[in-house]
Amino acid sequence: MDSSSAALICFAVKEEAKFFVPSLVPSVGSALITGMGRKNAAEGIRKALAKSRPTMVITAGFAGGLNPKLAFGTVVFEADSETGLTDGLLKAGAVPVRFHCADRVAVTVAEKQSLWQSTQADVVEMESSVIRSICREHAIPSATVRVISDAANEDLPLDFNTLMTPDDRINYAKLAWTVAVGPQKIPALIRFQKLTMIAARKLAEALHLSLGSRRD
């Protein structure tokens, strides 16, 4: 299918897209890795739209839970009616929610509780609002489809904000040093990595099912 007549799926990092296979869904043209944060997301989507005009854009990936009712692995979404995705996502078990797009990673339970109270949002992530805002500028329907990789009652194993470069990328040298000087963190990091892979698989399954059942 010509990319100008197909959907574009955006992920921030490759780990989020690990189990998503565009070729399994005829209505999908390609998957785009934008990088983390609003700046990288904006640059990525603008470059993609300069090359072709998709029928719709989905911003997908991991998200932190703010609403305590949302368990790990829950697929959550918010979609323009024009995408035709809502019925398929509901049938795939996804839950409609309100998203908050943050400038930093919400690391602790206390941070998540504070965000939940101040924003009234159910979920936090870092890229979707800017991607969808740019899509609105181009009159392209869009949706956010995310999976809870860390629930509201869970701390992340590291403060990933301290490991970011100025352009919102992970500084792997700093990560290695952090682990080297704090080896007690290794079991929690291994567990977190395993959980993110489970979450990525759940996200891919929901995307495959909902996009496969979509009716234009």
The total strand number stands at: 8
Q: Please report the first level of CATH classification, the CATH class.
A: Alpha Beta
| Gross geometry | globular
CATH architecture tag? 3-Layer(aba) Sandwich
Low-confidence stretches: none
Radius of gyration: 17 Å
Number of spatially distinct domains: 1
Count of individual helical segments: 6
Helix percentage range: 25-40%
CATH fourth-tier homologous superfamily: Nucleoside phosphorylase domain
What proportion strand? 15-25%
Report on the structure:
This protein is an alpha/beta fold and 216 residues long. The chain has a single domain (3-212), classed as Rossmann fold (3-Layer(aba) Sandwich). The protein is built from six helices and eight strands; from the N terminus they run E-E-H-E-E-H-E-E-H-E-H-E-H-H. Helix 1 (37-51) packs parallel to helix 4 (128-137). The chain is globular and about 50 Å long. The protein starts with 6 loop residues before the first strand and ends with a helix. The model has no long low-confidence stretch (mean pLDDT 91).
